[in-house]
Every structure is written in C-alpha cells, then in structure tokens.
Amino acid sequence: MSDSDFRALGASRLLLQIMRVLNLLFAVLLVGMFVASFVVEPVFREFFTKYPARANPGLLIAALRVWMAFALPMLAAVHIMLTRLLAIVDTVGAGTPFVPENASRMKTIAWCLLAVQGFDLVCGAMSAIMNAAGSRIDWHFNLTGWAAVALLFVLARVFEEGTRIRTDLEAMI
C-alpha cells in the first residue's frame, strides 16, 4: 500500500471516528429535546400557535415527538454502521480485508442502512402529517439510498466469496 493510500485510510478512519462522536452527541441532544418537549410544552404550544400561522399546535407537538422517537433507533443504526465500517477500515490497514468478519460486518452495515432508509420513509409520513397540521416541510423520495442498500448486500456477498477464495488459495499453498 502506498503512502497516499495509508494517508487516505487514516483520514477515512479519523472522519468515521468524528462522525461516530457527532452521531452520539446528536442522540444525546435528541433525548434532551424529547424531554424538553414535555417539560416546556406550553412554550412550544405558544410558538406553534404563532408560527406557522393556522397551525394545529397539539398535532405538531405530537408529530415531533413521534418523529424524535423514531429517530433514536435510526441513530443507533448509524452508530452500529459507523462502528462496523471502522472495523473494516482497520482490517484494510492491516492488509487483511478478506476475512469472514468483514463479510458479516458488511451485512450488518447493509441492514443498518436499510433501517436508515426506513426512517427516511417515516420522515416522509411525518412531514405529511405536520404539513396537514399547518407546517411546510419538503420531503422527496430518493432511490439513491435504496440502491446503496442493494449494493451493500451484494458487496457483503463479494466479501464472503473473497474470503472463501482466499481460504482455498491458502489451503493450496
């Protein structure tokens, strides 16, 4: 592996670690916002009475709470996904990417990304509910994430096959 490859791998590892920390921070903030939605509900109710005009504060607050409740498992899936990806990066750095654990990790990442895509559908439903309550939230269905899910399941299979070929090759030598 060249020096530039090692630097790129190191940069990727650092970026993944930063993303994992930010994801955990966001989870903590989300729990705080969820609790705050009950503690200071009158403030939210007053705000939503004025902004947006013609809003149904009760429905908006309830929808936001449901949305936040669905976001927590999504953040857990992102944490798992980033952790498994970090482990794969470590094996690449060690020069052993085709190990059985990476095939399993890739499948886990695919399932986690599927959960994230499911949350995206929840976002679409929640934005429709909130728009019916007087809000204006744009949401658009996107196939890119769904294609990435399929790609990850295929790559997991490629890793399984690569591991099998590597094991067979080592047995022949």
Structure description:
The structure is a single chain. This protein has 5 helices and no strands. It is an all-alpha fold and 173 residues long. It has one domain. α2 (41-50) packs across α3 and α4 (100-132) packs antiparallel against α5 (144-172). It is elongated, with a radius of gyration of 21 Å. The mean pLDDT is 91.
| Most strands sheet | none
Uncertain regions spanning at least 5 consecutive residues? none
Strand residue percentage: under 5%
Distance between the termini: 23 Å
Order of helices and strands: HHHHH
Shape: elongated
SS elements, strand count:
0
Q: Could you tell me the mean pLDDT? A: 91
Percent of residues in helices comes to: over 70%
**Which structural class is indicated by helix and strand composition?**
mainly alpha
The number of helical segments is 5
Rg is 21 Å
**Into how many domains do the coordinates divide?**
1
